[in-house]
Amino acid sequence: MSTAITLKQINKLAIPALIAGVSEPILSLTDAAIIGNMEQNATTSLAAVGIVTTFLSMLVWVLGQTRSAISSIISQYLGAGNVETVKNLPAQAIFVITTLSLVIIAITYPLASPIFKLYNASGDILNYSVDYYQIRVFGFPFTLFTIAVFGTFRGLQNTYFPMLIAISGALANIILDVVLVYGINGFIPAMHIKGAAYASVIAQLIMALLSAYFLLKKTDIPLIAKLPFNPEMKRFALMILNLFIRTIALNIALYFGTSFATKYGESYIAAYTIAINLWFLGAFLIDGYASAGNILSGKLFGAKDYKNLLELSNKLIKYGIVVGLFIGVIGAVFYYPLGNLFSNDEAVLTEFYSVFWIVLAMQPLCALAFIFDGVFKGLGKMKYLRNVLLFSTIVIFVPVIFWVDRLDYKLYGIFIAFTLWMIARGLPLIIKFRKTFIPLAQNT
């Protein structure tokens, strides 16, 4: 690619990806908002949603790394002008990952109660967690299928169709949540927390069906897996392995955050649920630019256009900081209305308001870390991403969260640990990228 990457090109990919990315946390945020305002057992149910969402996020992030791996490989081949060579890779990857998801359902469904006891859930919170999970887990294969298709579209430099699919799923989830949680008098009984789980599963099914439709109608990428395996399947598997280890490290941090918040009491885990889901929303908003970095860096790297790759990174740093600050400002403006949207319990709101400012202050730091996550995934440098996250979790996050727990900082301490964790994740990536590609850009 001989011409410089412009803001228009970045936004053409980033804005649809941003909208598509927001659909993932919206599924959980919608559940949290509607459940948190139920007339009966709202706080207990909200706590259960928070615990299950953390565990499901772990499963999705561990196996959903197919999106980054597929996107990286296809975008690099596209940049090299040889995408035909990897046309059969997505179908093979989708078959492997969805088969594995069925195995996980078979293992975790009967073990739901012991799993959530590990998160310090007990009593009604444990019972609601099990009820919610044993329904929502059946949406897992649909989610992984959709994620893999999104990765294929991203590799082809297309974020428009994923955006349409994500909007459809999010709208379906919101409508179904209202109908199934509260019921329709005389027609549909109120199913409360189970209704929210059914709504999510149906929305995930809708997204999977739309994904298959758009991929088959708008591209020549097949969905039927055939042998022999594509030669790039080995590199794909190594990427997935490194990302798997990396995501385990990520979820260790999320596990300790949820576990400690649950230990502090019902109002704390409910407040943490609201705060962490809003943090996820901010992360997925920023993910639009991380996706643009992933898509464009893979293509530029495949074309060996190091000057424009370096220029892309400089622009993404600027845009990431601006987006992070914008999210922080919007959150500050709607600071109290956001809390009231998710709960009317004064004890929960008090704890939420005491830490939400930290979530907002983190946003520029998160932006840089997430954007360079995307860039390194586009480059296929999964091993380095793995090592950075292992370091930031084991050496930084875990010791800090135990330290602040001993100081009895509660939620305040949890989000201090998350802030330091994000700094340790982002800074090494920026330094490594610039040390690698500044000399390459100068020599071309």
TrEMBL record:
Q: Keywords in alphabetical order, please.
A: Antiport, Cell membrane, Ion transport, Membrane, Transmembrane, Transmembrane helix, Transport
Key word Transcription present: no
**So where does this one cross the membrane?**
42-63, 93-112, 132-153, 160-184, 196-216, 236-257, 269-296, 316-336, 356-376, 388-405, 411-431
Q: List the GO biological process terms.
A: monoatomic ion transport
Keyword Manganese on this protein?
no
Xref: CDD domains? MATE_DinF_like (cd13136)
Query: What Gene Ontology cellular component terms go with this record?
Result: plasma membrane
InterPro entries xref list: DinF-like, MATE_fam, MATE_MdtK, MdtK-like
Localisation per UniProt entry: Cell membrane
Q: Name one Pfam family in it.
A: MatE
Q: Which family does the similarity line name?
A: Belongs to the multi antimicrobial extrusion (MATE) (TC 2.A.66.1) family.
Q: What protein name is recorded for this chain?
A: Multidrug-efflux transporter
